């Protein structure tokens, strides 16, 4: 088992979440990083969670990408930034991405802790 590589990939995912990029770029980079963990780099249960969260992310991302502009701001299909007149579908997608990024952060921390206990170093 190569637990050290799994730790490195999780740390890189966390670093991407805290970069200066736009929100969508940070989340996308982190999920891309974590999706590269293979079965030899963490537990089977963690790997199943990675797949689950990545699938959820891809589902939300595909729906949300068309509404998030390069500035990282969510826009309605008519180009207007959603206001306080109610919760729009776009805001729900953005909230879901935020929730997924928080779940990813927790998962990365769990993997780092788990792998650290089993690593040779």
What does the secondary structure layout of this molecule look like, with pairings?
Blueprint: H1 3-17, H2 23-34, H3 44-64, H4 89-118
Helix pairs in contact: 1-2, 1-4, 2-3, 2-4, 3-4
Note down, in words, how this protein is organized.
The protein has 121 residues and is mostly helical. It has one domain (3-118). The protein has 4 helices and no strands. Helix 3 (44-64) runs antiparallel to helix 4 (89-118). The chain is elongated and about 50 Å long. Mean pLDDT is 83; it is low at 82-86.
Tell me the distance between the termini: 12 Å
- Tally of helical runs: 4
Count all strands and give the number. 0
Order of helices and strands: HHHH
Structural class: mainly alpha
Q: Considering DSSP H and I runs of 4 or more, what fraction of the residues is helical?
A: 55-70%
Largest sheet properties: none
Shape: elongated
Mean pLDDT: 83
How big is the Rg? 16 Å
Binned strand content: under 5%
Tally of individual domains: 1
Give me the oligomer status.
single chain
The low-pLDDT segments are 82-86
Features:
121 residues, mainly alpha, 4 helices, 64% helix
Concise structural overview:
With 121 residues, the chain is mostly helical. The chain has four helices and no strands.
